Amino acid sequence: MRLALQLLGVVVAVLLTGAMFGTAGWTRPPVRSEQTGFRGTGMVQVQNPRTLAAQIEAQAAPAPQDPVPPGGEPATQTYQNVKVLTDLSTDQFNRVMASITEWVAPEQGCAYCHNVENMADDSVYAKTVARSMLRMVRHINADWKNHVGETGVTCYTCHRGNPVPQAVWHNNPGPPHAQGFAARDGGQNHPAPEAGLTSLNYDPYKELLGDKDIDQNAVRVAAKTALPTSPSKPLQTTERTYALMIHMAEGLGVNCTYCHNSRAFSSWEESTPKRVTAWHGIRMVRDINGNFIEPLTPVLPEARLGPEGDPPKANCTTCHQGLAKPLNGAQMLKDYPELAGGPMPKAP
Question: Which of 92, 168, 180, 309 falls between 20 and 30 A from 302, CA-CA?
Answer without folding.
Answer: 180
